[in-house]
Write a structure and sequence with these properties.
There is one protein chain. Strands 5-6-8-7 form a 4-stranded mixed beta sheet, covered by helices on one side. It has a two-stranded antiparallel ribbon with strand order 1-2. A two-stranded antiparallel ribbon has the order 3-4. It folds into 2 domains: 71 residues, 2-Layer Sandwich (Translation Initiation Factor IF3), CATH 3.30.110.20; 179 residues, Methane Monooxygenase Hydroxylase, Chain G, domain 1 (Up-down Bundle), CATH 1.20.58. By secondary structure, it is an alpha+beta fold. Helix 9 packs antiparallel against helix 12.
């Protein structure tokens, strides 16, 4: 399964790189009105960006005799505009509360009213406390007998995407280091620590999802978020998801070690650490050597066929490093 996934990723990467090379358009200069020089825009580009007659585009003269054509940034929404939602839960429906709150938070909602008749159950309050611990900035602002209002008090516009990714990468690295330490001392407290950090990683992933949504909604400018445009949201989302699932995989490895014993080999741990570091370098710093290193590590690991769950989990972690490379390919294509 992982080998097929690897080949698929390499095929997709080559396809995208081909698309990058084919995005050069040749146009003849036309003269309109005797004095205005014009060129036409690629039709697919216009349709993709939903442009129409009268819309404004920005042409920037660069120092190397190049013209850069781009769309203007959307105007941020006014601070007074709050996106609200309401959840009406019957008794016994508390189980799905956390999933619904995460979805609304990630979708950019600022205020959520939760109602339950005749009164808010203790089970709902417990589920709410658990959910809020994973949602940065969400706090209870009203608490009545039959409803609770939670509101976001965090100004995401002051948080860069880069800092959120920094924190997620740091958490995965610390989980990897503790797994390496466990291989030497066999202290199960280290495994428990890895498992406990998964909630914090989820918290930053949900924050990242919200930040990216607010960019698409025009509530955070590209400049403040530290990205070049809305098209870059997709590779950032893909990269963030791969980081989050990398943490999940390390948690799965830790749980298996706690229940069944055993330990990843020294070579496996070295491959995981190297692949992750190289994947981060590739995506964050456009390091093409790191791209080749991740592909080589993944390919070499699957020269053998594995059936043991622990070995397959190691393979899953390496596959997620390939997913980070795929996000880099998408990001690189957008710069072409």
């Amino acid at each position: 399964m992982y080998e097929n996934s690897f080949l698929h990723n390499l095929y997709r990467a080559s396809t995208i790189l081909y698309m990058m090379s084919s995005r050069i358009h040749t146009r003849r200069i036309q003269i309109v009105g005797g004095s205005t020089y014009t060129v036409s825009l690629p039709k697919n580009w216009v349709l993709f960006n939903r442009l129409k007659k009268g819309d404004i585009v920005i042409i920037e003269e660069l120092g190397d005799n190049t013209l850069l054509l781009r769309l203007p940034e959307p105007e941020p929404m006014t601070l007074g505009r709050i996106k609200k939602a309401q959840l009406n839960l019957a008794q016994g429906e508390e189980l799905g509360l956390e999933r619904m709150l995460v979805a609304l938070y990630s979708a950019g909602y600022d205020e959520i009213k939760i109602t339950q008749s005749p009164i808010i159950s203790e089970r709902l309050r417990s589920k709410l406390r658990s959910a809020l611990s994973k949602l940065s900035g969400m706090e209870v602002v009203e608490d009545a007998a039959d409803y609770i209002v939670v509101q976001n008090i965090l100004d995401e516009s002051k948080l860069s995407i880069s800092k959120t990714l920094d924190r997620m990468e740091l958490l995965v690295r610390s989980m990897l280091r503790d797994l390496e330490r466990y291989s030497k001392v066999s202290d199960k407290e280290l495994l428990a620590s890895i498992i406990s950090r998964d909630d914090e990683l989820d918290k930053f992933y949900f924050l990242l999802s919200r930040q990216l949504t607010l960019i698409l909604l025009g509530r955070t400018s590209y400049a403040k978020a530290g990205i070049e445009g809305s098209a870059h949201v997709l590779p950032l989302k893909t990269y963030g998801k791969a980081l989050e699932e990398s943490g999940d995989t390390l948690v799965s490895i830790s749980r298996r070690l706690m229940e069944r014993g055993g330990v990843p080999t020294k070579d496996q741990l070295k491959l995981m650490s190297k692949a992750f570091s190289s994947a981060v370098k590739a995506f964050r710093y456009d390091d093409r050597k790191a791209v080749r290193e991740v592909a080589a590590i993944y390919s070499s690991y699957f020269q053998e066929t594995y059936t043991d769950p622990l070995n397959l989990l190691v393979g899953r972690f390496l596959a997620l490093c390939i997913a980070m490379i795929e996000a880099w390919v998408d990001k690189t294509a957008l710069k072409a």
